[in-house]
Amino acid sequence: MNNLAQSVDAGSPQPGGEAPMLECRGVSRNFTVGKGFMSEKKTLRAVQDVNLSVDRGKVLAVVGESGCGKTTLAKMMLGLLKPTTGEIYIEGKPVSEIGIRQIARKVQPVFQDPYSSLNPRKTLESIISLPLKVHGIGTREERTHMVEEMLSMVELPKRLLHSYPSQLSGGQRQRVAVARALIMKPEVILCDEPTSALDVSVQAHILNLLQDLRDEMNLTYVFISHDLAVVEHLADYVAVMYLGRLIEYGEKSALFSNPQHPYTQALLDSVLTPEPAKGIPEIALGRGFPNPLDPPTGCSFHPRCSKVMDRCSVDAPVMHSRDDHLVECHLFDE
Ligand SMILES: Nc1ncnc2c1ncn2[C@@H]1O[C@H](COP(=O)(O)OP(=O)(O)OP(=O)(O)O)[C@@H](O)[C@H]1O
Ligand SMILES: [Mg+2]
Which ligand has the minimum distance to the alpha carbon of residue 77? Predict the structure, then answer.
């Protein structure tokens, strides 16, 4: 085992044994951005040096404000984006060596917006069976049968087989997106804000469905959300991101009962605000989210931090192990 793996394993809050279902080791992703043809190009560090892992059958929630890098991380886990540095492993195998088709058989996404992610010109049968067709699985009749089975798994009536997305409610569309993800019998479902476009009551149904499916199919979830109430309900482990960095990571119960990072503390305080689903209120955190193209020096959270110290604007903090979880903050320097 190399040093990096050792340090990650040593810091991982999950017990050892077989390889984790999904693991990120030192994963970073940069984007080059420039306004126009002649303008200066800048590097945007969307994800920086993320180490985390999730065991089979568990739910890892990734939380943080808009722009902190959650979707970028998710796209790398799906093999849709390559890390600039670092590697993602599925059951111990590097994603860079697996190939996109094999990744798709293991990891399937459910995205935020069930309106734009379903092709409006296709019937549900055609939408849900598309992954099977792409992978050349089954005859036409077999595929129809599998789609019917999936519709019942996600509690949609079979009569909708020949309907179009426009004929469905938001909640029903999200069930179609879940069915499409499940038809390949994947091991990991990667949900990027899967319910944030839905009404609260519909959200609850979808979340219950996801939980039931997890038990029935022994699924592993990576669940991206800014809604900490949802995360508290579903997650086994929580990863908190800030400006591309993983700043606190650990078992949900430890993290919720005893958050260590001032940012996580502010996030949890924001759950107590009247409308947590609307996102993380500015008030709890003072100034707004910094410009990712020009991040603050030292600890990137320092301009908004209630416990800021002199060294925070100078030195970048390192990860510390605290009270059963990991936290990247100068408060815990020796
Ligand atoms: N293709 C791209 N080119 C340039 N910058 C990008 C690209 N994709 C993402 N970014 C930038 O990377 C950062 C992280 O974006 P990302 O979409 O991962 O955030 P997020 O946490 O998913 O936000 P949200 O909660 O709004 O979905 C942002 O600053 C974003 O502007
Ligand atoms: Mg996103």
Answer: 1
